[in-house]
Amino acid sequence: MDSNPKTVSHALRLENLRSELRRQGLDGFLVPRADEYQGEYVPPHAERLAWLTGFTGSAGIAIVCMNEAAVFTDGRYTLQIGQEVDEDLFECLHQTETPPDTWLRRHLAEGNRIGFDPWLHTGPQLQRFRDACALMGAALIPCEANPLDAAWMDQPPPPTGAVRPHPITHAGQTSNEKRAAIAAGLTEERLNAAVLTAPDSIAWLFNIRGGDVPFTPLPLCVALISADSTAQIFIDLNKVTDGLSDHLGNSVSIHPKEDFAPALSSLGAAGQRIRIARDTCPEWVISHLKTAGADIAPGEDPCALPKARKNEVELEGMREAHRRDGVALVRFLAWLAREWLSGKITELTAAKRLEAFRAEGALFMGPSFQTISGAGANGAIVHYRVEPHTAVTLKAGSLYLVDSGGQYLDGTTDVTRTIAIGEPDGEMRDRFTRVLKGHIALATAHFPTGTSGSQLDVLARTPLWEAGLDYDHGTGHGVGCFLGVHEGPQRISKMPNRVALEPGMILSNEPGYYKEGAFGIRIENLVAVRELASAKGGERDMLEFETLTLAPIDRALIDPDLLTEAETGWLDEYHRRVNDTLAPMLEPDAREWLATATRPIRP
Fold it and tell me: Which of 5, 212, 282, 460 has a CB 3.0–4.6 Å from the CB of 511, allowing a cystine?
């Protein structure tokens, strides 16, 4: 899909959609950046928002009316959306400052019919639009066929990535054991079954992996698990590989996706009490269950918390993956330190070289997301995506931000480093050191059991707040094990989150600072929650973080005078561990570079 606004006529696409809306008797349509599974990454045929508007960010929604249209996104993409979307066709709006339902209400007339695809929205997402329509005497109409798909003449077909077993040597727990635990939870809550629509939950529960979306080994499918631990998977049978049925066992049956609707009807006809995931279940499923007479019990995805609590095999796999990933990062950083002087290194060539270094490592299956490779002003675009027509050359006196990760059979990595290209100025060093102080504060935190990530977020921001600075993204997200690089339910952010951090959970630690039009800074390591021996005389069970990522932090950007003795001690110890762990795995030139890069911060 070509989304370069210079080569695509989004005006024609918009007009074709409006023609189809007229044909279906609709006055408007909601176009979310989503597929049926509410995942971060969607296959090409589901990139409807990008096709229509040109906006390629991972979060957003468009509302198309007959005479007006708008695209909404969050603070991560405010710069990007302005670069990608033709503002003669669409208003580009911040969804917090102008909520989509508020905009829709302003553009509704009595009797209007606004369409939506019930597979692409959850119940909570739709409620605000229902309220807006009701207030104005309009109606929100579920569409049996998505009108945008009818307008998208060359829409790619749905993916058919092969589904394969994920071995116990990496999973650490059998699917039978996982299903028994989930079933016990359903029984305790007096539930008959649960609908699973999140592919990462299905991949985890059944110890399978797929290849349907970019960067994440997910099988796009849905499933039902009953309180007796039997289960059904509904999937395009073209994805099923030899041996998959034997891997799943007799208690799990595989069905074509067309059988999902009858299966839901059967549950409803029997009056069964069914768990649906409150925040991710599509409206189509909810409506079908209601019509069939099921007793719907909205709640949390029953796989989310168990999946987040990594077992010991998964934790050791993550550590091993980070060791190999660290070797690739050091080789890249050593290469970059030499090659940028040629004046020929661009954001794109650097990103490709980093991926090539990773590809040389064992068990590497591909990137865990599209590398954010931003030099100078592009580094200030939080989720910048380099393309051939945007790539700039790395130049002296600038900062280069590279946020990247790998998918390995035994783990998933995500790391950001900000690198001085040439000599940094005082402002760069001040901002970088404040970000580092926040990073260290979170990395060294001790906190009682029951603490949520939102309670820790302030630790990472305080050094920036003291200088009247901040950043507009979360401080930490959960990470899967050879699954999604962004995983819930745990997170570290300003947004309220009541999910307590528990041993085995893995999160990112990534404070940042962004000066529009100048530079961006982010320092990101992955950390695992673990138990901490209580201090002498302590009365609470305590937790701490184990830092998993192994890569040097650019000493050229650090102002030692801004660091406390404790912060300096953490940095020196971290660098010692990086060097001791990775040096034996490196060739001589990279080993020499690493020794210099990890010297103590003060002589």
Answer: 460
Please give the biggest Cα pair distance in the chain: 75
Bridge partners for 225 per DSSP: 194, 231
Provide mean pLDDT across the span 110-117: 98
Banded pLDDT at 360 (limits 50, 70, 90): very high
Quick count: other Cβ atoms within 10 Å of Cβ 537?
5
Let me know: does 189 contact 264? Beta carbons within 8 Å: no
CB-based contacts of 9, cutoff 8 Å, min separation 6: none
Residues of the chain by 3-state class (helix, strand, coil), percent to 5: 40, 20, 40
If one counts every other C-beta atom within 10 angstroms of the C-beta of residue 596, the result is 12
Q: What does the pLDDT look like over 391-403, one tens digit per residue?
A: 999 999 999 999 9
Q: What is the rounded average pLDDT for all residues in the chain?
A: 95
**Which pTM was predicted?**
0.93
Beta strands of 314-357 (E only): which ranges?
none
Domain range 309-530+539-589, CATH architecture = Alpha-Beta Complex (3.90)
What's the CATH number of domain 10-151, 3.30.70.270, 3.40.350.10, 3.40.50.620, 3.40.50.300?
3.40.350.10
So where are the chain's domains? 10-151, 164-303, 309-530+539-589
Residue 451's Cβ-side half-sphere holds a number of Cα atoms within 13 Å equal to 22
